[in-house]
Amino acid sequence: MTAALAAAAGAVGFSASTLASPTQANSAVNLAALSLNSGQQLSGITTARIQARQLATRDSSRVQLADTTTKKQSAAAQLAKARAAKLTATQALTAKRASALAVAKAKAELAEKTARESATRCQIMVTGYHITATFGQGGSRWAHNHTGLDFAAPIGTRIGAVMKGVVIFADWAGPYGRQVQVRHEDGTVTWYNHMSKFSVSVGETVYAGDQVGAVGMTGNTTGPHLHFEVHPDGGAAVDPDPWLRNHCGLNPYTAG
């Protein structure tokens, strides 16, 4: 800095000790240059020094800007990395939960299938019924004493098998009307009579609750109902009431 510029810098409040940075020096030089507008001319060397100081200040600003940009880019990259890691963890947790749910569902379905296909599982044959005739009951409606249990229900009411078995008969049976017979694994045969339609065919395996037909009033009957009979080992009919209670744990007077 020339003596004139130094003097001018001192005049505007800058000392040599305060001109440590390029910015301070540049400011001092500019102010000093302005103070010489009274007619003094700067030498070529002084002008070059001023321009060098200004260039240094711009370079320093560029370096600071580049450093700030680099830090911002680094922070953005770290944030993106953290977000990606969080997304990966969330996806892994979702997949783990989905797998656990699938396993639980498969186990539940297997347990349900096993229970449904159990040879000892029982289910009442119809719903929404009331008992209208019992085993051994006499009357003019039958040639002999009543051989089954009558479940009165509206025509078309679904009739299900009482337990697992194989259909051995599905046809018209004279006074019984449309009849289905199912042989169970212990040899007992159950009869479903007076049906309006069949839902099974001979040789078909049915499980407790599987539909075998629908309530009707075919054959000798005065109203729509299921006439249900039980024949141990395919022999003579027995009272369905105690058989349902003891063999199946069903009370026909409350189950429907």
From TrEMBL:
<feature type="domain" description="M23ase beta-sheet core">
    <location>
        <begin position="145"/>
        <end position="240"/>
    </location>
</feature>
<dbReference type="GO" id="GO:0004222">
    <property type="term" value="F:metalloendopeptidase activity"/>
</dbReference>
<dbReference type="InterPro" id="IPR011055">
    <property type="entry name" value="Dup_hybrid_motif"/>
</dbReference>
<keyword id="KW-0732">Signal</keyword>
<feature type="signal peptide">
    <location>
        <begin position="1"/>
        <end position="20"/>
    </location>
</feature>
<dbReference type="InterPro" id="IPR016047">
    <property type="entry name" value="M23ase_b-sheet_dom"/>
</dbReference>
<protein>
    <submittedName>
        <fullName>M23 family metallopeptidase</fullName>
    </submittedName>
</protein>
<dbReference type="InterPro" id="IPR050570">
    <property type="entry name" value="Cell_wall_metabolism_enzyme"/>
</dbReference>
<dbReference type="Pfam" id="PF01551">
    <property type="entry name" value="Peptidase_M23"/>
</dbReference>
